[in-house]
Amino acid sequence: MSSMSKPKVVFFGSGPVAAESLELLTQWCDIEAVVTKPQPKHHHEEFPVLAIARAHGLTIITASNRLEVDEAMLNNSFTSRVAILIDFGIIVSQAVIDSFELGIINSHFSLLPEWRGADPITFSILSGQAETGVSLMLLVAAMDEGPLLAQATYDMPENCTTPELTETLIELSDHSLQHIVPLYLEGSALPAPQETVALPGHTTASYSRKLTKADGILDFMKPADQLEREIRAYAEWPRSRMQLAGKDVIITKAHTKTPSNSDNAAPGSIEVSPEADVIMIHTANGRLCIDQLKPAGKNEMTAQAFLAGNKV
Q1: Does pTM top 0.90 for this prediction?
Q2: Annotated domain spans of the chain
Q3: Is domain 3-197 given the CATH code 3.40.50.170 in the classification?
Q4: How far apart are CA 87 and CA 47, in angstroms?
Q5: Rounded to whole angstroms, how far apart are CA atoms 5 and 85?
Q6: Which of 39-48, 171-180, 279-288, 292-301 is least confident?
Q7: Looking at residue 260, what is its pLDDT?
Q8: Which of 19, 97, 142, 215 lies 20 to 30 Å from 119 when distance is taken between CA atoms?
């Protein structure tokens, strides 16, 4: 794509997903400015979005909250007709949206109206659903309720983790934006209300939330299959934690076994497989079989290696 044909946009983004997305956008967009959160004083390493923007010589505008975003937009005039927002972490006012002729396109990593909110990728894994994707939406003041420009689907592998799914959806998002942004600028792609164009099986509005550290504590009163999904969903943060042989450990990989007729042990009780290579924990329904774990202060290891040095 020649520089003459590159769409001109302002980019809003702050988090790690925003950083990877910005790097991809620089290959086919003319980035007029990057609006992002400032570097916190206690962070010594440069934030990824700031590093990428500086590496490409882009204009940087920093803002910590909604009011600062409003002020920044009042003090700058842009020629871009549209902006792109990914992983920004600040609510954008209607005044800022309206400052662009064609508004702001938000790439949201779910099939809206499913999993509106802060953490759609994690909740897609937690739900056990087989399909997710990316939605290109025009930003509105309400949370993730804007009209859709396009959706792209992705069949989730059975054992995918949040980091793996994130990387895939970043690529899918960029591919979708490359296709839709030029069409939207020329008037060929038109937004439509979510209720009218939502994909079959994803028409019910649902909401994700920000995770807390407490979400990572494994609760064996839950079914084994739910705990296995938590381990994959929380692989990056807050990570799934428990005590084993008197030690704090993070569970990094597990599988499940369905309950047998004799499987009436109390949830949380532990047994070791005859081969001594898997640690099995009884749950409210089925057994959670620990394959790999990371003791505090040590490297990740197999359950077999842990059992060799610890009495469970």
Answers
A1: yes
A2: 3-197, 213-309
A3: yes
A4: 14
A5: 21
A6: 39-48
A7: 62
A8: 97
